[in-house]
Amino acid sequence: MAVIYIDEEKGIDAPDTQGSETAPFKSLAQAYLLHGADNEYKVKKKDDEEFKPAAKAAMKKAVAYSEQQRKKKEAAAKRADKEAAEQAALEATLEAAKNIKISEDPALPKAVKINIQETDPKVIGQLRKSKDEPAEGVIRVCVQGRVQRVAKQGGLVFVVLRRGLHYMQCLLSGELTKTYDVLTLARETAMEITGELWEVPAGLRAPLNRELHADYFRIVAKAPGGDDAFTNRVPEDGDPAHSSMLDLRHLTLRHEKPATVMFVRDVLEGAFNKAYRELDITKVSPPALVQTQVEGGSTLFSFDYYGEASYLTQSSQLYLETCLPSLGDVYCIEKSFRAEKSLTRRHLSEYTHIEAELDFINFDDLLSHLEHIICRVIDLVLENPTAAAAIEKYHPEFKKPQRPFMRMRYSDAIDWLREKGIKNTEGTDHVFGDDIAEAAERKMTDEIGRPILLTHFPVEIKAFYMQKEEADPRVTESVDVLMPGVGEVVGGSMRIWDLEELMAAYKREGIDPAAYFWYVDQRKYGSTPHGGYGLGTERLLAWLLKLWTVREACLYPRFMGRCTP
Ligand code: 4AD
């Protein structure tokens, strides 16, 4: 029997502590755990005391602790053994699975390749109802897609294949489920599955209420599992606007919401094209590389164009104006670029600008046109079932805007903001002449809760080309359309159409008119009262789908600090 020493003040509990008088343990529990019953234990509580035999109660505690630790260790060892056995079994199964080769039964009829979303019985044949019913009209089909989900149930493997926004549930059974490829099937694997389409049994759900009972499959290209698995890189519940998700936007886009947003974006653009065509407005495509500014020098991206200073366009407006005499009313859907130096929820460096220019109109015509085009476009978008379902899903409280929109003069908005105590960026009451900042505008729009046509902004805070109001020349015939949740989605105005007035505006703004000779000529050769507007596609989409930021509304967003991927 040895004596084991414990010094509760100076001792050390380490695996190699000897427990001698000169190298004591710190705790009785640890000493007992390592040295067991057949020893004598001496303890000192303070450095200046003598070592004394351990108290009975303390010994009891140490024994209990040691027993508890022993049991824990045993359980952990058992678990580890079990896991090792399972792992070995899995490896053996996987090894064996490598030898399982499947082949397409040549006796079966040739499969017809169909799109995942195809529902036409002339293409896909009849859905089989059950094993017992005759397979009349049922044909063999083959679908291609990427793996969205894999689930094992009993001896069956359910694979949901995805093609774009469309899904098909496939059911693998028998030998197919034992293959190495199916045992290691990872999300995003591209594959082809062949079999018969069955109705989904009553009470169960699957896309389009059908499932493909596979008799054969072929892997087109595998995707990795483990650490490199798709969902480890871009988690399903990750915020698509988070910088880590934007870094991997090429993968994030494969998730349902970002893909749906892009789909609705396409529907939205299509709706604008249709709505403009209905009004006989012609689409044109102005240049992106320009040598004039439209919306002020502070947000211009400049570049060297074969030795000449040039810019990426901020707006196609000036070019649209030049098209009025040749084509009548015109519109375009083009990129605009703004070197915005702030990071907000609604500012991008590159955005898709929907702009229109209308000839021989007055300001009221412009406002009515805006109401019409927005309402018509929303109706057209809602006619698309996928887009309508997406709005319902992501923006359940969405309400179609009703005409007429609320019309509010800028000066009344200033009064409204003062009454509500909403301050300007300096923290003081708004005064006439203030640029209503994003936060204040958003508060106002959210509180009013419906689209607003905010009109008649002061000359000083608007662009050089805007027509002044005859009744009050301090203000312009200008309009911003404000939407709840986003704020400004449209900026428009009547344009100065008198040559002298335009030249005075250049002078006022300190702009050299030389580069604008083509815009000036517009006022020389049969000038007309005209006006137009620009609408931010991403902002409208953010409003429609209740997106937190316009960054989610872009395929690959560009904003300060991001130009990749
Ligand atoms: O109000 P803005 O600057 O007006 C113009 O560019 C006019 N020349 C358009 C015209 O009359 N043809 O911009 C128009 C709209 C804004 O209401 C907003 O929706 C969007 O373009 N927009 C932006 N969207 C995202 N990021 C930015 N940095 C944006 N700047 C403007």
TrEMBL record:
EC number(s) per entry: 6.1.1.22
Catalytic reaction list: tRNA(Asn) + L-asparagine + ATP = L-asparaginyl-tRNA(Asn) + AMP + diphosphate + H(+)
The keyword Transferase is annotated on this UniProt entry: no
Record key words, sorted: Aminoacyl-tRNA synthetase, ATP-binding, Coiled coil, Cytoplasm, Ligase, Nucleotide-binding, Protein biosynthesis
Coiled coil residues, start to end: 65-100
Family: Belongs to the class-II aminoacyl-tRNA synthetase family.
Molecular function via GO: asparagine-tRNA ligase activity; ATP binding
Location of the protein in the cell: Cytoplasm
GO cellular component: cytoplasm
Domain of life: Eukaryota
InterPro entries in UniProt: Aa-tRNA-synt_II, aa-tRNA-synth_II, aa-tRNA-synth_II/BPL/LPL, Asn-tRNA-ligase, AsnRS_N, Asp/Asn-tRNA-synth_IIb, NA-bd_OB-fold
Protein known as: asparagine--tRNA ligase
An example Gene Ontology biological process: asparaginyl-tRNA aminoacylation
Taxonomic source organism: Sarocladium strictum
Domain Aminoacyl-transfer RNA synthetases class-II family profile positions: 264-557
One Pfam assignment: AsnRS_N
SUPFAM superfamilies: Class II aaRS and biotin synthetases, Nucleic acid-binding proteins
